[in-house]
TrEMBL record:
UniProt keywords, alphabetically: ATP-binding, Coiled coil, Microtubule, Motor protein, Nucleotide-binding
The keyword Iron is assigned to this record: no
Xref: PROSITE patterns: KINESIN_MOTOR_1, KINESIN_MOTOR_2
Gene3D superfamilies per the UniProt record, alphabetical: Kinesin motor domain
Residues annotated as domain Kinesin motor: 13-579
Name of this chain's protein: Kinesin-like protein
Coiled-coil features, chain-numbered ranges: 621-669
A GO molecular function held by the record: microtubule binding
Biased composition (Polar residues): 247-256
Pfam family, one: Kinesin
Species this chain originates from: Capronia epimyces CBS 606.96
Length: 858
């Protein structure tokens, strides 16, 4: 294949570079001997243009690992390929990141650098570096602040009050409804309060791993250690550099290339680390207490070595200072002033979350509570919208981000480190510190003409561009990564978004090869929208024209990693692709070139030459040859088809895998939905039961009320009846008394008339006694003979008494038992007596009393 015809176009939306990761364990003999990724040497033309020392190849060949199937060999073209020994500086320099920074500074054109690859292939290493090497983000920040130098406007200065004009003017010029804050205020809000620092999700692992192996001539060092002598630096650093312990204090920017002191971590004495940020008391007090307490620092060191985040203020001097990027400083407008704003966000499950909006507040609930735990997980973080705003009608922006105005590289580093502690990372089977979200680190450079004096009438507005550096989450196969549960669901989302990104890149690559204008389907997910929406010139001509961003995609690959996953990524990201099907050795050539010399072989079989010599004519041989050629051709066609099928199969397998992961995702969603529906139904059912119970209760109460009413009525009757009865009793008693008085008068009269009848009258003197006897007689007379005789005597006396002129009999003092036989008295008494209470009322009363007792029982 001719390289020149297949070289990727320089006008693509993304320049695509390939970076190969060095092996973690240097000895891997089998795979080393049998590599499936072969880098083609750089073409002579490229070598010439690059100069004698640095040449970068542009093509690789993927040779499927040896198995029984004859799979197609694929060849991919990239803008440049960085082999295993390429340094961070090589990548920074050769990907044109420095040029992109220059464009941002000078023309305000946006720049974007992103990494794409299988999990563990070195994306985060490239973007964020490791504990000993800086990544593209840190190098970009360093170049920016070095280039701007004294022209930087900072909101806080050690000797001056807060520059509120700067913050308010930046706020006014911001089109994204951002919340602009100074770095000092932001850092104070995060680290000023120990409790808040603890509440942040700072206990999750760091987003960067330690470098397992230095490439090139770097020595292998212990994790977390720093190069401490000039020999530790690679040959790209030409000469020993002057030592400096930190940035220039007056400006806050580094005055020279900084090399770390030899023992910065174990001996953090103030003299050796004189850096400070232009800030006020609480922040510095905390910092000083940190320095005074080696124990605390030891804790920091220990936790860091276990990938546990430090809830303490990051110290720029302990962060890697290598590689040195001082040669890349660029010219700026000397009559302008600049401001640098940093914002960070992540795309997680297709939603955008601010990494600098500390979700915790001083009143946050403790971690032990459910709400506190939810807070830690970041569940309460509010997703942001990617939308058009009033000031950005032609271009979508992430609205509502927190943007931090940084006055120096050190401030920017502390903000970056703080934001990284909020990023989602997790340990998987493929990578111990795997990014679970797509991280976007945006550096906005604002510029405006410098005011020539305080009398200037109009303050010019800020303009500028943004340099975005993106660390994408890696695609992964669930089987390899051994992910489960929510991590598996995350992987599903990651793979889905990367699939959409792959589609966009593939469209770009196809259009490049066909020479047509690409229509990129970038609105399928947040990730592709964020990456591609700035790739096109401004659509609104009424506003100022904006050039499309300068975009670079660095594809990372591990040549000793998973062939299928890597080939899939390369297939859609490469700018050029070619498939070659391995040819089956031709039968014809075998026959014609047969080496037999007319003798049967040792196994007793004849060679074709023997047959030709002995049995076949030339014509027959010709026919056989033609037939063999035809069959060979057929075989070849079949082999091509088979290879195509193999590729299709691999693609289908990957799609299936993506679908499976999506299915897992969907299953989880469905489960959650079912659960919530069930909960809803349970609630409804509970409510229904509660209502029914209420109704039943009301009915019961009504019933009781009814009963009580009846009871009350009957009680009223009784109450009404009693006074009447008593009145009657009194009346009858009075009558009784009257009668007794009459009786006594009669007795006296009788005594006066006939003394012989005295004894008889005496016998009848006590009618009450007689009455008592008569009363008891009813019940006892039958059983008691004494009472029976008494009764006889009494009845005799009564009979005798009847013989008097007025004969009467009182049978009882009780109104009920009182019976007056005297015709006159009986008549009048009967007339005056109320009718006796019907027996049923008493009975009913007794019954009700019983019922009342029944109802009273709950
Ligand atoms: N060029 C390199 N030189 C030295 N070490 C490297 C290089 N690239 C990657 N590594 C190391 O490989 C390991 C995995 O790298 P890294 O975490 O950057 O992978 P990743 O692609 O970001 O993975 P993920 O997508 O899961 O986040 C780390 O230990 C990292 O330091």
């Amino acid at each position: 294949m001719d390289n020149s015809t297949r070289m990727p176009s320089q006008t693509s939306l993304f320049q695509v570079y390939l970076r190969l990761r060095p092996p973690i364990h240097p000895q891997m003999p089998k795979q080393k001997l049998d590599p499936w990724l072969i880098v083609e040497p750089a073409s002579p033309a490229a070598s010439q243009s690059e100069g004698p020392t640095k040449t970068f190849p542009t093509h690789i060949t993927l040779q499927p690992p040896n198995d029984s199937r004859k799979r197609a060999i694929e060849r991919f073209g990239f803008t440049k390929i960085f082999q295993e020994e390429a340094t961070q500086l090589d990548v920074f320099q050769e990907t044109g990141t420095a040029d992109a920074i220059q464009s941002v500074l000078q023309t305000g054109r946006d720049g974007l650098v992103a990494t794409l690859g299988v999990t563990g292939s070195g994306k985060s290493h490239t973007i964020l570096g490791s504990k000993s090497q800086r990544g593209l983000t840190q190098m970009t920040l360093d170049v920016l602040f070095r280039s701007i130098g004294e022209k930087i406007r900072r909101p806080h200065h050690p000797d001056l009050p807060t520059d509120t004009e700067l913050l308010s003017s930046l706020q006014v010029a911001d089109p994204s409804e951002a919340r602009i804050q100074s770095a000092t205020t932001f850092l104070e809000s995060v680290y000023g309060d120990g409790d808040r620092a603890r509440l942040s999700r700072a206990q999750t692992p760091m987003s960067r791993a330690q470098t397992p192996m230095m490439v090139g001539n770097q020595t292998h060092k212990l994790p977390g250690s720093f190069p401490c002598s000039p020999e530790d630096y690679p040959s790209t650093v030409a000469s020993p550099l002057p030592l400096s312990h930190g940035p220039n204090l007056s400006t806050g920017t580094p005055s020279s290339i900084r090399m770390l002191p030899s023992i910065p971590e174990t001996d953090p004495s103030p003299e050796k680390e004189p850096w400070r940020i232009p800030s006020k008391a609480p922040f510095l007090t905390r910092l000083r207490s940190l320095r005074k307490s080696p124990a605390k620092l030891q804790v920091v060191k220990d936790t860091a070595s276990h990938y546990v985040r430090r809830p303490l203020l990051p110290r720029p001097s302990t962060l890697p200072q290598y590689p040195d990027v001082s040669p890349f400083s660029t010219d700026i407008d000397p009559h302008a002033e600049y401001a640098v704003l940093i914002s960070m966000y992540e795309v997680y499950n297709d939603r955008i979350f601010d990494l600098l909006s500390n979700p915790t507040s001083p009143n946050a609930p403790p971690m032990s509570t459910r709400q506190g735990a939810a807070l830690q997980k970041g569940l309460l973080r509010r997703p942001l919208l990617f939308k058009n705003t009033e000031m950005s009608s032609d271009r979508k922006v992430v609205a509502g981000l927190r943007k931090i105005v940084c006055g120096s590289y050190d401030e920017a580093m502390m903000v970056l480190e703080t934001g990284l502690t909020e990023r989602r990372v997790a340990g998987t089977g493929s990578n111990s510190v795997s990014s679970r979200s797509h991280g976007f680190f945006c550096i906005e450079v604002k510029k405006r003409p410098q005011l020539q004096g305080y009398g200037a009438p109009v303050v010019p507005a800020w303009t500028g561009g943004t340099m975005s550096i993106v660390d994408l989450a890696g695609s992964e196969r669930a089987r390899n990564a051994k992910t489960t549960g929510s991590t598996l669901a995350e992987a599903g989302k990651i793979n889905e978004s990367l699939m959409y990104l792959g589609q966009c890149l593939q469209v770009q690559s196809d259009c490049q090869q066909e020479g047509s204008k690409p229509i990129i389907p970038f609105r399928q997910c947040k990730l592709t929208e964020l990456l591609f929406s700035n790739s096109f010139p401004s659509s609104n001509h009424a506003t100022t024209y904006r050039s499309p961003q300068k975009a670079v995609m660095i594809v990372t690959a591990d040549p000793l990693g998973d062939f299928n996953a890597t080939s899939q990524i390369l297939r859609y990201s490469a700018l050029a692709r070619e498939v070659t099907v391995p040819r089956v050795p031709s039968v014809t050539s075998a026959i014609l070139g047969g080496g037999g010399q007319g003798k049967a072989g040792q196994n007793g079989r004849n060679t074709p030459q023997d047959l030709h010599n002995n049995y076949f004519s030339a014509q027959e041989l010709e026919q056989a040859t033609n037939e063999a050629a035809r069959l060979a051709e057929e075989c070849h066609i079949l082999a091509v088809r088979l290879a195509e099928e193999e590729i299709n199969r691999t693609e289908a397998e990957l799609k299936l895998q993506a679908a499976e992961e999506k299915l897992v995702d969907m299953e989880q969603e469905v489960r959650e939905e079912c659960w919530s529906e069930m909960e809803e139904r349970m609630e409804e059912e509970k409510e229904r039961w509660r209502m029914a119970w209420e109704q039943e209760k009301m009915r019961g109460e009504e019933f009781i009320d009814g009963k009580l009413e009846i009871l009350e009525k009957t009680t009223q009757i009784t109450i009404h009846e009693d006074p009447v009865t008593e009145a009657r009793v009194e009346e009858l008693e009075r009558e009784n008394e009257t009668l007794r008085a009459k009786l006594r008068a009669l007795e006296q009269e009788m005594q006066m008339r006939s003394p012989s009848k005295k004894s008889r009258v005496t016998a009848a003197k006590s009618p009450v006694q007689g009455l008592v006897l008569q009363e008891t007689s009813n019940s006892n007379v039958a059983t008691n003979p004494f009472l029976a005789s008494l009764r006889l005597r009494d009845s005799d006396a009564t009979i005798k008494a009847r013989t008097s002129e007025e004969e009467f009999k009182v049978s009882d003092v009780s109104p009920r038992k009182l019976s007056l036989r005297s015709s006159s008295v009986t008549r009048s008494a009967m007339e005056e007596l109320p009718p006796p209470p019907p027996p049923s009322t008493v009975k009913k009363q007794r019954k009700l009393t019983t019922r009342k007792w029944d109802l009273g029982d709950p």
